[in-house]
Amino acid sequence: MTSKLTAQSLRKLSNGVSIPAIGFGVYQTPAGEALSIVSEALKAGYRLIDSAAIYGNEEEAGEGIAKFLKANPSVHRSEVYYTTKIWNDDHGYEATKAAIQKSLQKVEKSIGYIDLILVHSPISDKEKRLGTWKALQEAVALGSVKSIGVSNYGVKHLEELLAWDGLVNKPVINQIELHPWLPRKDITSFAAKHDILIEAYSPLTQGKKINDPELVQVSAELSKNAGKTISPAQTLIRWSLEQGFIPLPKTATVSRIPENLDVFGWEFTDEARKTLDKDSYEVLTWDPTVYEDPK
């Protein structure tokens, strides 16, 4: 499968909607820079932009998409996939309804609708989480939001949602921190059984593992095999693709945008797969997947 992937490849969600096989994240991208960085990412070939209410750059991300589409009329809005997320403070039916409207208002003028809304994390309680899902399902029924999913959900949080008697729309995505040092095989195998695609955030480990000796060695071996330089960052993004994940690399450096997308036309060797197949649990960001509701 991975040998045939290109920057234009699409993955099919359980609701029949297609999503790009790789995305561009705007976490920690200042609002004042998001418009230009999103436009540059789309210019380089990305077609999936991942934002969130808590990032404070939804409006600018939408404007960046609109700017690119205006300059490139051959690319249709339907070809660009925009994601945002409901923050923890807005869990619960009424609060989520209001949050959805806020997120819609920030992008309706620029891009018209939201392709995907995720529950940013399970941090609240069961009643609020399910109330949030009820509000999201209603948004899908109205057509202003095309698909819904979750982020930072552990197996128990996914089980809770899938067992809910009010479930109409299954989560199509679970977005979690993933990289060779945090493969989360319990969550990814559960998701595979239930036809939930996995998005990998912080696939570049926020730079914390870029100089890892094993990663550097694998990158050198892949470079030799591919006949061109493969950087550790490219190796990590390709690792996510090899696992069947949708990686969401981010960078504030414009020159690195095309480099992070140059992860096609070559693939891992068996030795590279073996070296980076780690049985570890090294969280480099935060870990709501283990969240327990207050007693």
Can you describe what's shown?
This protein is of the alpha/beta class. It has one domain: TIM Barrel (Alpha-Beta Barrel). The chain has helices spanning 31-44, 58-71, 93-111, 126-142, 155-163, 185-193, 213-226, 232-243, 256-261, 270-275; strands at residues 10-12, 18-20, 24-25, 48-50, 81-86, 114-119, 145-151, 173-177, 197-201, 246-248. The strands form two sheets. An eight-stranded parallel sheet has the order 3-4-5-6-7-8-9-10. Strands 1-2 form a two-stranded antiparallel sheet. Strand 7 (145-151), helix 5 (155-163) and strand 8 (173-177) form a beta-alpha-beta unit. Helix 1 (31-44) runs parallel beside helix 2 (58-71) and helix 7 packs across helix 8. The longest helix is centred in the middle third of the chain and has 19 residues, at 93-111.
Main features:
single chain; 295 residues; alpha/beta; TIM Barrel; eight-stranded parallel β-sheet; two-stranded antiparallel sheet; 10 helices; 10 strands; 41% helix; globular
